[in-house]
Amino acid sequence: MYDGTNNKKLVVSTQYKTISGEDLDARNDMFIVKPQAAPASYKSLPKHVRIQAINGDYAAVNAKNQAIAVREGDLRADAYDNLDFIFWLDTAHYDNAAPYTYYITKGVKATEEVAASRLYMWNSVDSAAAKDANKELPYIYGTGANRVMFRTASIMAQDTLLVPTLDAAAKIDTVSVAAGKSADGLKHDVKAGVKNFQFSFEFASKDSENEYNIVCQNNNGKNYVHNINGVLAMGPKEDAVVVNVLNVSAEDEEATGNETITTDGVKVIASEGQVEITGAAGKKVVISNILGQPVANTVLTSDNATIAAPAGVVVVAVEGEAAVKAIVK
């Protein structure tokens, strides 16, 4: 007990029926209370995100399932699908003692099960070394940097993925932390390498806010994602790409391609370098890019108006109507 009148606590002995006072300082070693350190990496529950470098490039996936960096103007309907630059963060490890790690996968559609087989971000360092020995270089970029790839997989357990092989046999490997035999009755082979599918967003500097390096920590230590002429590849911390992790709204995931969008009589048609709007004479129209920056702001004088717009995802807001999204070629 503590009586509040001085720096003493009252000690009650039920055995000897006595009450005595002791200095608090003398017995203050029973508990040590320390403030909890702030996490050294990005912390989030599973969700959709965009990954944008501080120079404006966005992480995306090309037709060969290679990780690349592209500008907003490159996000054309004829080159990329909206889901190519939206990613799903799925928790791999969520422990205060270490950076929070994630499986970074190609965006999950609203109708798709999160646990379904899909493309997982992958550090190809092990395959790069094996193929390089055979003078085959599908995973190497430049003078030796191994590419960041996206590879089909599905989650079996927290640290275990089912990964189809890339050879002609087309088997399915069980990939976990270490090689061995499975714990189930089948006792099938388990390969090491799951850490090559796990990434964290670690603060780029101690003073940074929402500025991160993308890190893969495997048996070779920490590997950092770099942007080398638009190709994402692994390397040392020096010159690693610095990114922001951007939230994605539900409607953002449903950006429409070059089709006609109708809202209560007003039609919006995205085409080559422009947006056509019909049925909105006399109304104010604001067109913004993916970053929310206005690129056009005008009052329409015709029921069939054409407004120049940059290539990429745009948001078209017609006065009195719900804003819609479209992709301009």
From TrEMBL:
Pfam families on file: DUF6383
InterPro entries found in the cross-reference section: DUF6383
Domain DUF6383 span(s) in chain numbering: 256-328
Name this polypeptide is given: DUF6383 domain-containing protein
Species: Parabacteroides johnsonii DSM 18315
